[in-house]
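User: I'm putting together a teaching handout on how multi-component assemblies are represented. Below are the sequence lines for each component of a complex, exactly as they appear in our records. Could you produce the 3D structure of the whole assembly as structure tokens, so the students can see both representations side by side? Please keep the chain order the same as the input.
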Amino acid sequence: MSNITRDQFDVLVVGGGPAGLAAATCAAECGRHVGVVDDNPALGGQIWRGEVGKAASEAVDWYARLRAAGANVLCGTRVFHQPEPEVLLAEAPDGPLELKYNKLILATGARERFLPFPGWTLPNVMGAGGLQALVKSGLPIAGKRVVVAGSGPLLLAVAAYLRQHGAEIPIICEQASWGSLVGFSLALLRQPQKVRQGFALRKQLAGISFAASSWPVSARGERAVEEVVISQSGKNKTVPCDYLACGFHLVPNSELAALLGCRLRDDLVQVDDYQQTSVAGIFCAGEPTAIGGLELSLVEGRIAGLAAGGSAPAAKPLFAEREKLRKFARVLDRTFSLRAELRGLPLPETIVCRCEDVTRSRLAQHTSWRAAKLQTRCGMGPCQARVCGPATGFLFGWAQDSIRPPIFPTRFENLITFNPEAERSEITGGRG
Amino acid sequence: MPEPITVTVNGTSLAVPGGATVAVAIVLAGAACRKSVTGETRGPLCGMGICYECRAVINGQLHCRSCQIICQPGMEVRTDE
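Assistant: Of course. Below is the structure of the complete assembly, with chains in the same order as your input.
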């Protein structure tokens, strides 16, 4: 049995993306002993994946500030359980880790929403952010044809990134209508930062065809995807490709918040002015509170870090900026809400739960998430419904039931190592 | 760009860019990551450790999420393809 390592922090931050980096930095600059845990091999989250070591990135500035403030960084470390109040258990590369804290900041980010359609389980059909993450992680994409589809501003960012790395983008399919996209563009005009980003994107995407009210109907191929049938203005069209990068906007990673008893509404973590959740001493920042993008994540992270670090008054001047960015989040939400036609995408034989290979027709026999789960094993595989949960929520209107530990699959020895009665030989410092 | 490193995927060695994740090595090797419970071949989906589609056997350890692990020289990767 592996030995458990113990660590104790004034402020523990779960998640090292922009919100977590800003939160940890601000809390550490208040003089607190801070730890940041992140499941990924490096800090930066998805948006700054691979950029922490690069020059000319905002990520580098935050990373330098974090280091200067003396926070401990624990990467490759995933929190899976809260065995008792103010203690989290995590799986680290060298074995289980017990993390004690006085204040906790959840900055667990968001994931892509995936919707099932025929052929979506074929290799090389990936999330839009999913393919981008792989390319950031070393996958050569030059000369490959990538159809980018789904919904949300991420599609444009991904298409621009892939093209910059040599990919050919035959088409970008956005399920939202031109009407809602025009409303979105008008809202962008009120955000100077976003206007600049928008113009830069437009230049990077010049010449790529962009279709609104368009979505993938099916993906086909022998061993991997070879072509995708898209619906464009009511007509079907076949587009040959090497990859289909498809994600339907984002959903919050609020499982840990739910496990800790924080109040959620529509899966979003509810917070007060200082980003504190309904549980005293637990804060939340970034995408789990609202899908709002980088700038909102940063300002929420700063507010949470200052408040958890004991400098709440210093956070007050940031409220106005946050309010402006939250308005933008609400526009995002409206613009990229899913159209009803997408419910018709999966055929009866289409797999909806990829972990357990449960088809739509098997799910359609049930009237609730719980019944479907018990009868078909839908949502009971290793992803623990992180993929099929949002999909069945959209397809059938099912709400998920309560969350139970471990919130991620973990090795058996990690579950049995925790013993609250055991002698606690505290160790300090991380591997940061 | 860091120096390429060599790993083996299902017994065949291949060079991958330094810093690449194991999921990238598997895709470059032309292999699928796993067989689903009904026998479909699957590759990475989310690229960020959520979906578990990219799990593979790495240096003998089962069910590793290959998208979250950086390739090390000489690493042995097996998929159940």
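A couple of points students might notice: Residues 11 and 103 of chain A are 5 Å apart (CA to CA). The interface with chain B takes residues 39-41, 46, 50, 76, 78, 111-112, 114, 121, 123-127, 129-134, 137-140, 223-224, 253, 351, 354-357, 381-383, 386-387, 409 of chain A (CB under 8 Å).
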